[in-house]
Amino acid sequence: MEEKNDVKITSYDRLMRAWENSMELARDFEVYSKRVDDDELKEVFKKFAEDEGFHASKFRELLLKRQKENMQ
After folding, report:
1. Which of 12, 26, 28, 41 has its CA 20 to 30 A from that of 20?
2. pTM exceeds 0.70
3. What does the DSSP 8-state code read for residue 4?
């Protein structure tokens, strides 16, 4: 049950969090790809870093779009 003093988490808040998480994962996977000896694992981490970078880019687009809409 929601009370008057509960903190409301908006869609924008969740989008911001998802963007931050994706950027962090992309950085982590990139670092992992450079610190493993196994070539197969290195490629998996490299691919995941690229994929997560794409996700972060899309989240950023959505954030900027919402910011622009709120300024009008």
Report:
1. 41
2. yes
3. T
